[in-house]
Amino acid sequence: MKYLPFIRKDIQRPDPELVRRAAQFQAAILADVGGRRGTLGGSIQPRASGMKVAGPAFTVEVRPGDNLMFHAALAMAQPGDVIVVEGKGDLTAALCGTIMVTQAQAAGLAGFVVDGATRDTEEIAAGTFAVFSAGTNPNGPTKSLGGRINWPVTLAGTTVNPGDLIVGDDDGVVVVPQENIEQMLILAEQKVQAEARRIAQIKEGNLGAPGLRML
């Protein structure tokens, strides 16, 4: 019996210049111009305030509590990639910690987004590598079960395809489909300008709610 390949080595990534431009926007701005959709559920949070990440998704599916394929992805991902792990939301064992973070940072990766637990929180929080996860647990994982690399994954209710743009900050993580990046950047800049105008109006004393009709 033939099976589909579990590991896809080659993915299409967005232009690095688009990633650089996207990194300048808040996740909230990109979520708004994307139709208030594409954000990971609120369970996925940065492990320290101020962490930010932007880069193409290098997707991984693992069995709950097992990080074998996470390690495989770590060996395959390219500089600037964000490893995005579908860990099924399982919090019984951490899927990564300081050692994997150190390796990823040395390899030039942009960050981890894990729908599962992580550990070594204090050390990770003191560093500069962005880690977003669904929680923490001191238990270590197993390394014996297969999974998939660079297939579509689902994290906290949102589908992520390989090469989609991942942008995360203190508000959480938003996923921008690769084919929509350029248009969303145009809309994001327009929204930033519109919000700046509204803030200026408020500071000048215009406290009304634009677009709200009082009955």
Spell out the key features of this protein.
215 residues; alpha/beta; Glucose Oxidase, domain 1; two-stranded antiparallel sheet; 10 strands; 28% helix; 27% strand; globular
Topology:
Blueprint: H1 16-22, H2 27-33, E1 45-46, E2 53-61, H3 68-76, E3 82-94, H4 98-106, E4 111-118, H5 121-126, E5 130-136, E6 148-149, E7 153-155, E8 158-160, E9 165-169, E10 172-176, H6 181-203
Parallel strand pairs: 2-3, 3-4, 4-5
Antiparallel strand pairs: 1-5, 2-6, 2-9, 7-8, 9-10
Helix pairs in contact: 2-6
Binding site for Mg(2+): 120
Binding site for substrate: 97-100, 119
GO biological process, one term: methylation
Explained architecture:
This protein is α/β, with parallel strands linked by helices. It has one domain (about 15-205): 3-Layer(bba) Sandwich (Glucose Oxidase, domain 1), CATH 3.50.30. Helices cover about 30% and strands about 25% of the residues. The protein has helices at about 15-20, 25-35, 70-75, 100-105, 120-125, 180-205, and strands at about 45, 55-60, 80-95, 110-120, 130-135, 150, 155, 160, 165-170, 170-175. The strands form two sheets. Strands 1, 2, 3, 4, 5, 6, 9 and 10 form an eight-stranded mixed beta sheet that branches. Strands 7-8 form a two-stranded antiparallel sheet. β9 and β10 form a beta hairpin. The longest helix is centred in the C-terminal third of the chain and has 23 residues, at about 180-205. The protein is globular, with a radius of gyration of 19 Å. The protein starts with 15 loop residues before the first helix and ends in a 12-residue tail after the last helix. The model has no long low-confidence stretch (mean pLDDT about 95).
